[in-house]
Amino acid sequence: MTAPLSTIDRFEIFEQLHLHQRYIDNDASRASAELYASLYWPEARFTVNDIRQNVFDGPAGMKQLYDYAHSVFPMQRMRHSLGTFVIQGAGDAATVEWNWVVTWREGGEGFLSTGTYFDKFEKRGGVWKCADRISHVDPNWPAEKFQPWVDRQDQTFKAS
């Protein structure tokens, strides 16, 4: 029988969730994109379900996701936060269901959107990283605010 997750394992996974939110709010530099990608195992997959569905695979995909977010959307005006979460698992495998919150940093507009991540984490060589992440936006997604940025993505997308 595999041992349940220890308190240390749970905390290390919890810290990864916080780092995800912190790193996505970094600047649009290549160094920040690489820092963000370092949270994932090399074969990791990230599926985003919002006004579109996109799948990002591996380090190049995570960098593309980061670059897309930072060049298409006004990320400098947003702040990502961790909401409630549940970490379950045993041994070197864990699943995490956690809520995310995006607010505006400026303009007094308040909440922008919320959603839920469904993650699979693996521990390798004593290190926990995400192997698979699925993001589902809540129905409060303000598609009308985001659609103009998506419509201009061919002109605004820049790789770091």
Automatic annotation (TrEMBL):
It holds the Pfam family SnoaL_4. SUPFAM superfamilies: NTF2-like (SSF54427). InterPro entries: NTF2-like_dom_sf, SnoaL-like. Coiled coil: none annotated. Residues 9-133 form the SnoaL-like domain. This is DUF4440 domain-containing protein. It comes from Rugamonas aquatica.
